């Protein structure tokens, strides 16, 4: 895979692999035919092993293509099932950092909504309770910093995700008038941009879960990357 973007591997043993997914890279093969994380890692594992059998590897959770950060992959069907069970029982902790447009008035907050996914448009929207097909979504946030620039105020937040719905963080913040930096799908500020691609101000920075074999409590952390987070170090206007 010469010339391809490298994926940092944070941790690996016989059961799991934790990596730092580059923003803009799909998790699995899609219509673009661009190299994806799963294929890249399978190729890496194939080169490490003896034999010609395709390695088993599956993602136990997802990150949107524009989102970078920590991901866990299972290397056996048994560990995939064990990790999925932790996720279902809310024992798998996922923390993100995000840059949103606007000044959040509260330092801490909880968002709870009913979200409905539209598979035809690949979008999700907040809908009234009781809407057929809707699923409950919940997150907590903590304000890290705010900065005022020439084009407006930006808030840097830590997000603790309690449910893993499609585009959840992006939709829940945008529905309250705080669209994510660079989000051409949900943030009106960027919907008319002529750029083909913008970096999204969202990064998976902390994962915590029990090792599916040993039971050891594991915590992985990384620093957010991308132009949105670099912008927050700029001197306020």
TrEMBL record:
Catalysed reactions, as listed in the record:
a uridine in RNA = a pseudouridine in RNA
Give any Pfam family that matches: PseudoU_synth_2
Q: What InterPro entries does the entry give?
A: PsdUridine_synth_cat_dom_sf, PsdUridine_synth_RsuA/RluA, RluA_PseudoU_synthase
Under the heading Gene3D superfamilies, the entry gives:
Pseudouridine synthase (3.30.2350.10)
Q: Where are the transmembrane segments?
A: none
Q: What molecular functions are annotated in GO for this chain?
A: catalytic activity, acting on RNA; pseudouridine synthase activity; RNA binding
Can you cite a GO biological process for this protein?
pseudouridine synthesis
List each copy of the Pseudouridine synthase RsuA/RluA-like domain by range.
16-175
Q: What is this protein called?
A: RNA pseudouridylate synthase
């Amino acid at each position: 895979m010469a010339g391809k973007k490298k994926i940092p591997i944070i941790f690996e043993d016989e059961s799991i692999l934790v990596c730092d997914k580059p923003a803009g890279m799909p998790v699995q093969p899609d219509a673009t035919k661009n190299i994806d994380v799963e294929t890249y890692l399978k190729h890496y594992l194939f080169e490490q092993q003896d034999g010609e059998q395709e390695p088993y590897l599956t993602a136990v959770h997802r990150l949107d293509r524009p989102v970078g950060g920590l991901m866990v992959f299972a290397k056996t069907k048994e560990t995939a099932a064990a990790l999925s069970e932790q996720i279902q029982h809310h024992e798998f902790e996922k923390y993100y950092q995000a840059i949103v447009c606007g000044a959040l008035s509260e330092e801490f907050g909880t968002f709870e909504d009913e979200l409905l996914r539209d598979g035809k448009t690949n979008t999700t929207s907040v809908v009234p309770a009781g809407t057929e097909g809707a699923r409950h979504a919940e997150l907590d946030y903590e304000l890290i910093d705010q900065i005022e620039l020439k084009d407006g105020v930006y808030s840097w937040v830590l997000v603790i995700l309690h449910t893993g719905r499609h585009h959840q963080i992006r939709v829940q913040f945008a529905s309250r008038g705080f669209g994510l930096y660079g989000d051409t799908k949900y943030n009106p500020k960027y919907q008319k941009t002529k750029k083909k691609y913008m970096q999204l101000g969202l990064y998976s920075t902390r994962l915590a879960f029990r090792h599916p074999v040993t039971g050891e409590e594991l915590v992985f952390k990384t620093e957010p990357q991308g132009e949105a987070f670099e912008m927050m170090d700029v001197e306020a206007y």
